[in-house]
């Protein structure tokens, strides 16, 4: 279970650093994943709608 080891490593790093350091990094990573995923989902829905319309 690699994700448990990654979680432990992440929590150790977060504990060792202040929130001023890791909060912007975590927010940047989350937005860097969420925004492209949303764009891809919207594009997929648009293409599916185009294909289904006569």
Can you walk me through this structure?
The chain has helices at 2-16, 19-52. Helix content is 91%, strand content 0%. The mean pLDDT is 78. It has a domain at 19-54. The protein has 2 helices and no strands.
Give a quick summary of the entry.
The chain has 54 residues and is mainly α. It has a domain at 19-54. The chain has helices at 2-16, 19-52.
The coarse silhouette is rod-shaped
**Rg over CA atoms:** 18 Å
| Beta-strand residue percentage | under 5%
- Strand-pairing-aware structural class: mainly alpha
Query: Roughly what percent helix?
Result: over 70%
The first-to-last residue Cα distance is 48 Å
Largest sheet: none
SSE order in H/E notation?
HH
Low-confidence stretches: none
On the 0-100 scale, what is the average pLDDT?
78
How many helical elements? 2
Number of strands: 0
Blueprint (SSEs and pairs):
Blueprint: H1 2-16, H2 19-52
Provide keyphrases for this structure.
mainly alpha, 54 residues, 2 helices
């Amino acid at each position: 279970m690699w994700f448990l080891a990654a979680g432990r490593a992440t929590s150790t790093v977060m504990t060792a650093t202040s929130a001023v350091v890791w909060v912007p990094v975590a927010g940047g990573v989350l937005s860097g994943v969420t925004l492209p995923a949303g764009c891809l989902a919207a594009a997929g829905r648009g293409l599916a709608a185009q294909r289904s319309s006569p």
